[in-house]
Each structure stands twice: as structure tokens, then as C-alpha cells.
Amino acid sequence: MSKKFKITRPHAQVKRRKANETGKVSTTLKFFLAALTAICFRWSTGFGTYSGFNNPPMYGDFEAQRHWMEITVNLPLSEWYIHTNRNDLMYWGLDYPPLTAYHSFLFGKLAQYFNASWVELHKSRGFEGTDLKLFMRSTVLISDVLVFFTSCYAYSKSLPSHMYLLFLFMLLYPGNILIDHGHFQFNCVSLGLYIGTCTLLHWNYDIAAAVFFVFSLSFKQMELYHAPAIFCYLLGKCLYSPLKKGAACTLISILPGCITLLTNPTAENFNRCSLISSLSFFLFSYHVHEKSILIPAVSALLTLKSPTLTVFTFLLASTISLFPLCVKDGLTVAFFSLTFMFYCLIVGTFETSCKL
């Protein structure tokens, strides 16, 4: 019996190892296919029109992003944020933090390499050539894949079950696709850096998370919407000892979610507080762009660890709120297609969960 046991045990270990390797390959393939699907939806949306298409003299956000490339590669850094004869701040002046400027500078240099006329100072204003559109759409897709996709993947893998479905929902949320690849912006960078912040916080790399959040805030100032949650989470961990809890409570007099997070800094409370914080800013701020709904929406996506009707309803409502902007930009077909796709994904998820 002992000899038989010694012979069969290695075979069992080999089978178990092969099964684990097969499972890993299958999971990796799922994530890869999800990313590939998301890229296809983004690229197909990019074939439509965009903010300011054929709408002189100011055009829209497409021209703003191109103009920032023009400014950063042709003017010294000291003039980027200052009104001068060469930099008219009334014509899409650079009004985002420095990391956005450096991002524009990087792609502006790449534009100069391919075709200097795309970013020629003053003379390139309002240029809408097909080759430029292809280049600009590519810059968003590259930024999206490098920052947003990788952050979503890291966050999904940081969860116990790897949460492939969460990764799929995060990549296929219509709001991000419509605004960045339809309307034309680079929200994927700041939102991706924020998701990276959340991932590092879950891994207890608090200093690295703080650095990532500073980068996110340095790219887009609207990330201040998430700042109270970040602040309370980190402060709560610093003031975790019982002797300091009373003093910590006296310092905080804002939202109940922040107080809960301060006294109990868990990953779940952090996600909820982040959603409450960003949504409160969106609802009660004096001047809010409809595009700012992406900030609480990405926080809602991070809470989506299981099929939740409330979160799904909010995500659909946030997408529908972008409809007037999409009509203005000529993205009606893309809007209905992506929204219907996301709705079918939600229905399919609930049907599957009900069967299970």
C-alpha cells in the first residue's frame, strides 16, 4: 500500500498543477478578451463626430486638446499659463494642472514628428484633417490602455476572486467611452490614476497611494471630489489607536460617510465614502459640467463587487444624463449603441445570478 501511495501521489500533484495552470490561462484569456472588446468599442466610437466638429470659431474640446499640444511644444514653460501675445488665454487657454500640460507636451512632440502642421503655432487653429483626427483618437486610446486599463486590471486582481466581471463593467461603462472617445477628453488618465490609488490603498501601500492621488489631482483638479475620502482614510489609519480616536472625531465635522471612514478605515467603507464624497460635490457644487458625472460613476464602479440594482441604476442614469451633450456632439448613434450594450450586459448579469 505504501508503494502504491508513493506512485500515485506525484501524479495527483501533477494533475493539480496542470489544473491550476489551465485555470490561470483561462482567467488571463478572459481579461485579455475583455480588454480587446473594450478597445473595439472605443475605437468604433471614435469614428463618430466630436465636441466642436465643424463649429468655428472656438470649435470644442477636440480643438482645446490639440491647442494645448500646440502651446506646450511651441512656447516656453513660463508662458503656458500666462496671457501673452503668443498665448491668447481666451482661446482655449491651458486651465488644467501641470501634469495635463506635460501630457500635452509629450503628444505634441509626437505630433510634430509625424506632421508639424498639426501643432504649428496659430496657423493650426481649427485644423480638422482626417490624419489629425486619427492621431488624436489614437492618443486617447493609448492613454486609456496604458493608464485606465492597467489600473482597472490591477484593482480587479487585487480582489480575492480576481473579479473578471468587475473588470469588464469598468471597461465597458458607456460614460467613459462617450466622453473620452466620442466627445474627446483624457479623463481616462486622472480616473485611471485614481483607481490606481484605490488599488494601492487596498494593498496597504499608503505612501505610494498618496503619490498616485497627487498625480491624479495634478492631471485634473476635479479629482478634489475624491479628496475627502482619501484624507479621512489615511488620517483614520494614522489615528487608529484608542487614545487618539476622540481627538480625531473632533477634527472631522463633515459627512457621515467621512466620519464612518475615519473611525473604521476599511476598503469597503473607503469605496462608499468616495462615492458619497464625489456625488455630493457633483450635486451641490455651484458650477458643474455634465462630464463631471464620470467622477462619482467610477467610484460607483469600484463598489460593484456583486450585482447591485442600485449601482446599475445609477450608472445607467449617469449615462443618460450625458445624452444632451452627445446630441450636441453628433454622438447619438454611439450613445444609444453603448447604452443598449451596457443595459444588455446588466440584464444578462442579473439573469445569470438568479439562475445560480
From TrEMBL:
Recorded coiled-coil stretches: none
Major subcellular site: endoplasmic reticulum
GO cellular component: endoplasmic reticulum membrane
GO molecular function, one term: dolichyl pyrophosphate Man9GlcNAc2 alpha-1,3-glucosyltransferase activity
Keyword terms of this UniProt record: Endoplasmic reticulum, Glycosyltransferase, Membrane, Transferase, Transmembrane, Transmembrane helix
Pfam families: Alg6_Alg8
Record pathway: Protein modification; protein glycosylation
Domain of life: Eukaryota
UniProt topology in membrane: Multi-pass membrane protein
Segments traversing the membrane: 134-156, 162-179, 191-218, 300-325, 331-350
Subcellular location: Endoplasmic reticulum membrane
Enzyme Commission designation: 2.4.1.-
Enzyme class: transferase
Similarity-based family: Belongs to the ALG6/ALG8 glucosyltransferase family.
PANTHER family per UniProt: DOLICHYL GLYCOSYLTRANSFERASE (PTHR12413), DOLICHYL PYROPHOSPHATE MAN9GLCNAC2 ALPHA-1,3-GLUCOSYLTRANSFERASE (PTHR12413:SF1)
Protein name per Swiss-Prot or TrEMBL: Alpha-1,3-glucosyltransferase
Source species: Trichinella papuae
Lineage: Eukaryota, Metazoa, Ecdysozoa, Nematoda, Enoplea
